Amino acid sequence: MKKCTLHGHAHLFSYQSLQLMELLRHHDPSSFHHSVQSTSYYIDFCLHYNLHSLLKPIILQSVLLHDIGMLLVPKEILQQNRPLTLSEKRELEQHPELGIELLCDYPEIDFEPSLVLHHHENNDGSGYPDHMLKEQLPFAVNLLRVIDSYTAMTMDRPYRAKRSDQDAIHELKEHRNLYDARCTFLFVAYMEKRLKGKNILLHYFDYVPHQK
After folding, report:
1. Are 18 and 112 in contact (CB under 8 A)?
2. C-alpha distances out from residue 99 to 53, 67, 94, 118, 211, Å
3. Buried b (16+ CB within 10 A) or exposed e, 69-97
4. How confident is the model at residue 34 (pLDDT cuts 50, 70, 90)?
5. What does the DSSP 8-state code read for residue 52?
6. Of the options 1.10.490.10, 1.10.3470.10, 1.10.3210.10, 3.40.640.10, the CATH number for the domain spanning 10-195
7. Which residues share a beta bridge with 65?
8. Is the pLDDT of residue 203 over 60?
Protein backbone atom coordinates (compact mmCIF):
# COMPACT_ATOMS: atom_id res chain seq x y z
CA MET A 1 0.00 0.00 0.00
CA LYS A 2 1.37 3.39 -0.97
CA LYS A 3 1.63 5.98 1.75
CA CYS A 4 -0.37 9.18 1.53
CA THR A 5 1.72 12.33 1.55
CA LEU A 6 1.08 16.02 0.88
CA HIS A 7 2.84 16.90 -2.41
CA GLY A 8 1.65 19.59 -4.78
CA HIS A 9 -1.07 20.99 -2.54
CA ALA A 10 0.86 23.55 -0.49
CA HIS A 11 -1.10 26.18 -2.41
CA LEU A 12 -4.24 25.14 -0.50
CA PHE A 13 -2.75 26.43 2.74
CA SER A 14 -1.81 29.95 3.76
CA TYR A 15 1.80 30.98 4.16
CA GLN A 16 1.22 31.58 7.88
CA SER A 17 -0.29 28.13 8.44
CA LEU A 18 2.69 26.48 6.74
CA GLN A 19 5.02 28.58 8.88
CA LEU A 20 3.28 27.20 11.96
CA MET A 21 3.67 23.68 10.57
CA GLU A 22 7.40 24.28 10.16
CA LEU A 23 7.57 25.31 13.80
CA LEU A 24 5.72 22.12 14.72
CA ARG A 25 8.14 20.07 12.62
CA HIS A 26 11.04 21.36 14.73
CA HIS A 27 9.17 21.24 18.05
CA ASP A 28 7.84 17.69 17.70
CA PRO A 29 8.43 15.77 14.45
CA SER A 30 5.93 13.07 15.47
CA SER A 31 3.08 15.57 15.79
CA PHE A 32 4.09 17.17 12.51
CA HIS A 33 4.11 13.90 10.57
CA HIS A 34 0.88 12.81 12.25
CA SER A 35 -0.82 16.03 11.10
CA VAL A 36 0.43 15.70 7.53
CA GLN A 37 -0.54 12.03 7.30
CA SER A 38 -4.00 12.69 8.77
CA THR A 39 -4.56 15.51 6.26
CA SER A 40 -3.52 13.28 3.40
CA TYR A 41 -5.91 10.52 4.47
CA TYR A 42 -8.68 13.08 4.90
CA ILE A 43 -8.20 14.53 1.41
CA ASP A 44 -7.96 11.16 -0.28
CA PHE A 45 -10.97 9.78 1.61
CA CYS A 46 -13.10 12.74 0.51
CA LEU A 47 -11.94 12.41 -3.08
CA HIS A 48 -12.68 8.70 -3.05
CA TYR A 49 -16.26 9.28 -1.90
CA ASN A 50 -16.75 12.50 -3.91
CA LEU A 51 -17.30 14.51 -0.75
CA HIS A 52 -16.23 17.74 -2.39
CA SER A 53 -18.10 19.93 0.09
CA LEU A 54 -15.61 18.74 2.72
CA LEU A 55 -12.63 19.88 0.64
CA LYS A 56 -13.04 23.62 1.08
CA PRO A 57 -9.71 25.35 1.78
CA ILE A 58 -10.83 26.49 5.24
CA ILE A 59 -11.66 22.89 6.18
CA LEU A 60 -8.41 21.47 4.79
CA GLN A 61 -6.38 24.13 6.56
CA SER A 62 -8.16 23.29 9.82
CA VAL A 63 -7.46 19.58 9.38
CA LEU A 64 -3.77 20.29 8.78
CA LEU A 65 -3.63 22.51 11.87
CA HIS A 66 -5.79 20.34 14.11
CA ASP A 67 -2.85 19.48 16.40
CA ILE A 68 -1.07 22.84 16.20
CA GLY A 69 -1.69 23.27 19.93
CA MET A 70 1.10 20.72 20.43
CA LEU A 71 3.44 23.66 19.84
CA LEU A 72 2.50 24.86 23.33
CA VAL A 73 2.91 21.47 25.00
CA PRO A 74 6.42 20.95 26.45
CA LYS A 75 8.74 18.72 24.44
CA GLU A 76 9.44 16.77 27.61
CA ILE A 77 5.85 15.54 27.54
CA LEU A 78 5.55 14.98 23.80
CA GLN A 79 8.77 13.00 23.57
CA GLN A 80 8.50 10.85 26.68
CA ASN A 81 9.63 7.27 26.06
CA ARG A 82 7.24 5.95 28.72
CA PRO A 83 3.48 6.19 29.30
CA LEU A 84 2.48 9.62 30.57
CA THR A 85 1.58 10.30 34.18
CA LEU A 86 -1.94 11.52 34.93
CA SER A 87 -0.79 15.14 35.24
CA GLU A 88 1.21 14.91 32.00
CA LYS A 89 -1.78 13.41 30.22
CA ARG A 90 -4.00 16.25 31.44
CA GLU A 91 -1.48 18.78 30.15
CA LEU A 92 -1.34 17.02 26.79
CA GLU A 93 -5.14 17.00 26.58
CA GLN A 94 -5.13 20.78 26.68
CA HIS A 95 -3.70 20.92 23.15
CA PRO A 96 -7.06 21.49 21.37
CA GLU A 97 -7.77 24.57 23.48
CA LEU A 98 -4.16 25.71 23.15
CA GLY A 99 -4.51 25.36 19.40
CA ILE A 100 -7.54 27.66 19.36
CA GLU A 101 -5.69 30.23 21.47
CA LEU A 102 -2.67 30.07 19.18
CA LEU A 103 -4.66 30.40 15.96
CA CYS A 104 -6.61 33.35 17.34
CA ASP A 105 -3.28 35.20 17.37
CA TYR A 106 -3.15 34.76 13.57
CA PRO A 107 -6.23 36.56 12.17
CA GLU A 108 -4.96 35.95 8.64
CA ILE A 109 -5.41 32.18 9.10
CA ASP A 110 -8.94 31.00 8.28
CA PHE A 111 -9.98 27.92 10.22
CA GLU A 112 -13.02 26.03 11.49
CA PRO A 113 -12.78 26.07 15.31
CA SER A 114 -14.65 22.78 15.77
CA LEU A 115 -12.03 20.81 13.80
CA VAL A 116 -9.26 22.10 16.04
CA LEU A 117 -11.16 22.03 19.32
CA HIS A 118 -13.27 18.86 19.04
CA HIS A 119 -11.21 16.24 17.19
CA HIS A 120 -10.89 14.25 20.44
CA GLU A 121 -14.59 14.19 21.29
CA ASN A 122 -16.12 10.72 21.47
CA ASN A 123 -19.37 9.29 20.19
CA ASP A 124 -20.65 8.76 23.73
CA GLY A 125 -19.54 12.07 25.23
CA SER A 126 -16.47 10.64 26.98
CA GLY A 127 -13.95 12.66 24.96
CA TYR A 128 -12.39 16.05 25.58
CA PRO A 129 -12.40 18.99 26.06
CA ASP A 130 -16.20 19.54 26.04
CA HIS A 131 -17.60 15.97 26.30
CA MET A 132 -19.79 16.49 23.25
CA LEU A 133 -21.87 13.78 21.59
CA LYS A 134 -21.49 12.90 17.91
CA GLU A 135 -24.90 14.44 17.12
CA GLN A 136 -23.56 17.81 18.24
CA LEU A 137 -20.61 17.71 15.85
CA PRO A 138 -20.30 18.21 12.07
CA PHE A 139 -19.54 15.20 9.88
CA ALA A 140 -16.04 16.55 9.15
CA VAL A 141 -15.19 16.59 12.86
CA ASN A 142 -16.44 13.03 13.40
CA LEU A 143 -14.47 11.94 10.34
CA LEU A 144 -11.29 13.61 11.59
CA ARG A 145 -11.76 11.83 14.94
CA VAL A 146 -11.61 8.48 13.15
CA ILE A 147 -8.68 9.43 10.91
CA ASP A 148 -6.76 11.02 13.77
CA SER A 149 -7.05 7.82 15.82
CA TYR A 150 -6.11 5.56 12.93
CA THR A 151 -3.07 7.66 12.07
CA ALA A 152 -1.95 7.80 15.71
CA MET A 153 -2.20 4.02 16.05
CA THR A 154 -0.24 3.31 12.86
CA MET A 155 2.67 5.68 13.55
CA ASP A 156 5.63 5.11 15.86
CA ARG A 157 5.61 7.03 19.12
CA PRO A 158 8.55 7.54 21.50
CA TYR A 159 6.94 5.21 24.07
CA ARG A 160 5.53 2.52 21.76
CA ALA A 161 5.88 0.92 18.36
CA LYS A 162 3.26 1.49 15.72
CA ARG A 163 0.40 -0.95 15.28
CA SER A 164 -0.35 -2.71 12.02
CA ASP A 165 -3.05 -1.37 9.72
CA GLN A 166 -5.13 -4.46 10.41
CA ASP A 167 -4.86 -3.99 14.18
CA ALA A 168 -5.84 -0.34 13.88
CA ILE A 169 -8.89 -1.21 11.78
CA HIS A 170 -9.89 -3.84 14.34
CA GLU A 171 -9.54 -1.24 17.09
CA LEU A 172 -11.83 1.19 15.25
CA LYS A 173 -14.45 -1.54 14.84
CA GLU A 174 -14.19 -2.64 18.47
CA HIS A 175 -14.64 0.80 19.99
CA ARG A 176 -17.93 1.79 18.42
CA ASN A 177 -18.75 3.84 21.52
CA LEU A 178 -15.93 6.23 20.60
CA TYR A 179 -16.48 6.83 16.90
CA ASP A 180 -19.34 7.85 14.65
CA ALA A 181 -20.64 4.63 13.04
CA ARG A 182 -21.04 6.06 9.54
CA CYS A 183 -17.58 7.65 9.49
CA THR A 184 -16.03 4.46 10.83
CA PHE A 185 -17.79 2.24 8.29
CA LEU A 186 -16.78 4.43 5.36
CA PHE A 187 -13.19 4.88 6.50
CA VAL A 188 -12.70 1.18 7.22
CA ALA A 189 -14.11 0.29 3.79
CA TYR A 190 -11.77 2.82 2.19
CA MET A 191 -8.72 1.51 4.06
CA GLU A 192 -9.55 -2.13 3.40
CA LYS A 193 -9.62 -1.40 -0.34
CA ARG A 194 -6.24 0.27 -0.07
CA LEU A 195 -4.81 -2.62 1.93
CA LYS A 196 -6.01 -5.08 -0.70
CA GLY A 197 -3.83 -3.25 -3.19
CA LYS A 198 -6.56 -1.57 -5.14
CA ASN A 199 -5.20 1.64 -6.59
CA ILE A 200 -7.88 3.99 -5.31
CA LEU A 201 -5.51 6.71 -4.14
CA LEU A 202 -6.41 9.57 -6.45
CA HIS A 203 -3.77 12.10 -5.45
CA TYR A 204 -0.34 11.75 -3.89
CA PHE A 205 0.96 14.54 -1.73
CA ASP A 206 4.36 15.23 -0.24
CA TYR A 207 4.73 18.06 2.23
CA VAL A 208 6.81 20.85 0.72
CA PRO A 209 7.75 23.86 2.88
CA HIS A 210 6.11 26.96 1.47
CA GLN A 211 8.44 29.58 0.02
CA LYS A 212 7.18 33.13 0.22
Report:
1. no
2. 24, 7, 9, 11, 24
3. bbbebeeebbebeeeeeeebeebbeebbb
4. very high
5. G
6. 1.10.3210.10
7. none
8. no
